[in-house]
# Entry
Amino acid sequence: MQTELKVYNTKNRAIERFEPINPPFVGLYVCGPTVYSEVHIGNVRTFTSFDLIYRYLLHLGYKVRYVRNITDVGHLLDDTSEDKISKKARLENIEPMEVVQRYTVDFHQTMEKFNALPPSIEPTATGHLIEQIELIQTIVDKGLAYESNGSVYFDVLKYSESHNYGELSGRNVDELLSNTRELDGQSDKKHPADFALWKKAEPQHIMKWNSPWSVGFPGWHLECSVMSTKYLGKQFDIHGGGMDLKFPHHECEIAQNKAGYDEEPVKYWLHTNMLTFNGKKMAKSEGTGVTPREMLTGDHPLLTQSYSAMTIRFFMLQAHYRSTLDFSNEALQAAEKGLKRLMVALDTMSDLPTSDSSSVDVDDLIARLYGAMNDDFNSPIAIAHLFEAVKWTNLIVDKKETITEADKIRFIETIHKFVIDVLGLKNEATSDGTETIDGLVQFALELRQQAKLDKNYAMSDSIRDRLKAIGFEIKDGKDGTTYTPI
Ligand code: AMP
Ligand code: ZN
# Structure
């Protein structure tokens, strides 16, 4: 399949033509959340960016297998700190798997509100311990990892003799390796740059498993190497995540894959930029992590009002995924207005009057929409073109521009596809179904009224009884017919 899609490959620091390894299939792996707390709105931005990318690839006709993992163990920021999930379980005196379950469900509900499509496969780290132990063993057997006091470390120095550690992040391996920071006496590592593949558990550690080396737990980077390989193969098309994962997480992933499987794992590395507040990265640890729940209720000191999930989604898509996006009430309010204007125009389009000729160039608009998205998923430019379509809609209604019936059909179809399928926006007024149901019941009541006027009482009674069976009580009063859910 040939498309004009170009993507920015972080690894080569260049825009490249997108050519999947085995078209029309595309393997997409995105690092998922660590489920020890509610996600913050910065995390949602990253997953929304990949939702846009996934949706556009589907729109282009690719058969995408989208794998997004759940990190439910072993997420250590450094090799000495406690696993975040275990810590939360210990503090709340509950099972670690209760923590995992609670926040996995919460994450799914959140992403559904933001209208993100679910991934094709959502594997968990704890569900792939056997595979992780196997990969460690392979790397040890190849002499690129060593055991030390029950823990196993990746030997960065040894690996660097034949590979380029730092190839993704651009870190200079000599600098990393010449790090003179003294290893404290407690460390089992040969070198500070080495990273853990397996950690022996301290007695108080809750989440631990048997392994050939000790009762312990896997290092954080390992799960993604193992799960991407298992579900997408040793070489796959796209690997994504937030920019903060480039180093050490993704750098270590590449090293593990090359050491274990002797293959370059990923063709295109895509990294999303950070959501900031007042220019600072949104991070829970610094008190700047606003959760989706707080955004939807407005219950946060940084917020002057609540915002709907679609407003937030639209706000996020108005920035390119590789740009930082600064969070402010003013920008969100502007997004709220803009989205409303877009959705109103979408409704209006179906009633546009048509003429013998078009003064607007629909083909050109369509080409520009694809041009924007093909340019590394440039959603802000695509949205700017959609607002041109809004402007045209209003001008055609006012008879200041014209459109033919054939152009109108393509115009509506394209704008709907971009707004609904690609950007994943929806009309929130009807999104919980209330207005839709109300509209359908009112329609049934109109039919019943007509049946009565036609003296077709069998039909009018049947409509009343069917509505009752579904759960709506119909009452005829002097002010007209009303209904109440039973
Ligand atoms: P974590 O649960 O910390 O592993 O994060 C899940 C995803 O959210 C990762 O891809 C991170 O890179 C991404 N992420 C974390 N903080 C932010 C932020 N402030 N803005 C955008 N993405 C973020
Ligand atoms: Zn990962």
